[in-house]
């Protein structure tokens, strides 16, 4: 999460396998709501968003990406854990270089020693039906 009053620049990778997408699970304790979004992370100063995307996937789940294609820029204003957030997302479509990632149901990864997250494949229809919440909702335009 960004500091108050700060806009965060992110690079996220939308990975699709047929009718399912690979997403990270999050939880908002204030709203008591689970949500899902594409994996990736912050872009560091002096780093391109594409390089950040590749670095984040390597750091978080030790995965190399291939067929990386820029989809667009999304501005996301949201509230998380009771705080206002503001992100600029550079969104990429990509594939895993190693086919083993398509065989997984889920995996646990760490952004830091404290924060553990779950990444998993979810059928797109489960988001469209409202069973699961995909954020930001504008991601539907890219599916």
Distance between the termini: 25 Å
Spatial shape: globular
Helical percent range?
Answer: 10-25%
Q: Can you summarize the main beta sheet?
A: 7 strands, mixed
How many H/I helices? 3
Strand content bin:
over 45%
Stretches where pLDDT is under 50 for at least 5 consecutive residues are none
Radius of gyration: 14 Å
Number of beta-strand segments: 7
User: Can you give the mean pLDDT?
Assistant: 93
Order of helices and strands: EEEHEEHEEH
Main structural class: alpha+beta
Plain-language structure description:
The chain is of the alpha+beta class. Strands 1, 2, 3, 4, 5, 6 and 7 form a seven-stranded mixed β-sheet that branches. The chain starts with 7 loop residues before the first strand and ends in a 15-residue tail after the last helix.
Keywords for this entry:
143 residues; NUDIX_hydrolase_dom; 50% strand; globular; 3 helices; alpha+beta; hydrolase; NUDIX_hydrolase-like_dom_sf; hydrolase activity
SSE layout and pairing:
Layout: E1 8-17, E2 20-28, E3 33-42, H1 49-61, E4 65-80, E5 83-96, H2 100-103, E6 106-110, E7 116-123, H3 124-128
Parallel strand pairs: 1-5
Antiparallel strand pairs: 1-2, 1-3, 2-3, 2-7, 4-5, 6-7
Quick summary:
This protein has three helices and seven strands; from the N terminus they run βββαββαββα.
């Amino acid at each position: 999460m960004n500091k108050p009053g700060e806009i965060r620049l992110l690079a996220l990778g939308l990975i699709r396998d047929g009718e399912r997408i690979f997403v990270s699970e999050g939880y908002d304790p204030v709203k008591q709501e689970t949500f899902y979004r594409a994996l990736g992370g912050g872009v560091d100063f002096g780093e391109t968003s594409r390089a950040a995307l590749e670095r984040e996937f390597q750091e978080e789940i030790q995965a190399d990406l291939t067929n990386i294609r820029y989809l667009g820029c999304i501005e996301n204003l949201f509230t998380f854990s009771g705080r206002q957030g503001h992100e600029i997302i550079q969104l990429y479509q990509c594939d895993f270089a190693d086919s083993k990632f398509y065989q997984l149901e889920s995996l646990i990864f760490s952004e830091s020693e404290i924060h553990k997250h779950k990444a998993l494949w979810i059928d797109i229809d489960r988001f469209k039906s409202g069973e699961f919440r995909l954020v930001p909702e504008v991601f539907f335009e890219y599916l």
